[in-house]
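Protein fold
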Amino acid sequence: MHHTAGKYQKRVHERIGQPSVEELMSKDFQTVSPDTPLNRVVDHLLKRYIPDVPMVMIDEDSGRLKGFVSERDCVDYYSNEIFYANPDITARSVIKRNQTPQTITVNTDIFTAASIMVYHDCHFLPVVEDKKLIGILGRQTLLRGLHDYRDQAMTLAEERASPDLSEIANHRFIANN
């Protein structure tokens, strides 16, 4: 039974084409250096009006991804550090120690990306090439890609399940002649 399902799944993938990370990822993201003051990071986050949009921290020397500063991180640090009268915080202060962000590549399939997001409770995944950030895949964008793929697969399944009745009717008339 699994063998038949596997063959059908392969035909579905071949027929409709699975969306790729490269198609779904956003290349529109903000970067900050580790020494960017947190108040500037918060200004950028507030201008975007979208919760959990990351500010990507890049090492200026290597251009490599160092981590993310999310809205949640800023709320946490602001609430604690302002309370304790230490308002001068940088992006480096907010990045959790030993935090290595989960990353994917443009070649990662969307089901693997979904598993990583669910397992690690991520809202977004950095897409890297040669350890350099080239895009970000957000959870909502991934969900949209999976949903569209599902709709296409269901349409294909419906087409496969329902025979073309005009073909059957034509054969009946041919057989009766």
User: Anything to note?
Assistant: The chain has a mean pLDDT of 76.
